[in-house]
Amino acid sequence: MTWARVLAATLLVQGTAPDPQRLPDREPFFAAVRQNLERAQNAQREFAYTERRTELSFNPFGRLGTSGTRVFDVAPNPDGSIARRLLEKDGKPVADAPLERISRRAPRGRSMVDDVVATLDLTIDHREMLDGRPAIVLTFKPKPDARPQTREGRIARSFTGRIWIDEQAAEVAKVDAVAVDSISFGYGLIAHMNEGSTVTAVRRAVDRDIWLPVSVRFSGEGRALLFRKLTINFAVDWFNYRRSYSSSP
Question: Does 174 fall in a domain?
């Protein structure tokens, strides 16, 4: 969920009726949203969920289709890792798939949320409606002198875009971002994504007042393994959130 965490981390209004003529004060507004993001980041470790990964493609007429889908069941373990099992591939159930255990990095130094916020120059731009609810729209761009300490902060440094914050819930609801620099994975040896790559992430309330990522869309071109041209168009959706610890060994 790194993209979604990266893009949701840039944030932040206690739930009072908004004045349609007045935008919120910057510091208390940012502080409230940041607090909610930190709370959601901690709460996310308690949730199991279903994850669907879909590779997207365009036919000769420019219509969007799918070229491959995998569905996983994902559950947290008490030690902080997650257990993941493949349930379905390209619409067909997968029987007896092995259980994967994926370690999560322990946070060190500055938190991911603080690091991303420190990396980006955020501006309160305007208010508009999003899904029938008032939202505050922020614009963001990387600070020229930013020195991010986390992987999420280093990724955020390569993007500019807009953030929609649900004003009543003080939660990041949507992020649209465009890469203003190339992005390297695996020190550039595994993949190198070009400037102009786009990311859209969406968050929703999944358990009373806890908001978590529900989708991310990524599109871009670059190079894989130094030489091969790489085109990535994929979607990840998270749903069926439920509080649960995995009992798997």
Answer: yes
Answer yes or no: is 105 within a domain. yes
Q: Distance (Å, rounded) from C-alpha 90 to C-alpha 125?
A: 42
- Of 243, 173, 244, 164, nearest to 208 (Cα)? 243
* pLDDT in the model for residue 111: 80
Segment 202-236, tens digit of pLDDT: 999 998 889 999 999 988 877 665 556 666 788 89
Contact yes or no for 71/87 (Cβ under 8 A): yes
> Angle, to 10 degrees, between the axis of helix 112-119 and the axis of helix 26-43?
140
Q: Are 38 and 113 a contacting pair, CB within 8 Å?
A: yes
Residue 187: Cβ-neighbour burial (10 angstroms; 0-12, 13-18, 19+): exposed
Give the range of the structural domain holding residue 127, as residue numbers without chain letter: 2-180
Question: Rounded to whole angstroms, how far apart are CA atoms 77 and 135?
Answer: 35
34, part of any domain: yes
Residue 240 included in any domain: no
Total of domains in the chain:
1
| pTM for this model (two decimals) | 0.80
Q: What's the distance, Cα to Cα, between the start and end of the chain in Å? A: 23
Summarised one tens digit per residue, pLDDT across range 7-40 is 555 443 333 444 556 899 999 999 999 999 999 9
Q: Determine the Cα–Cα distance for residues 152 and 4; give it in Å rounded to an integer.
A: 10
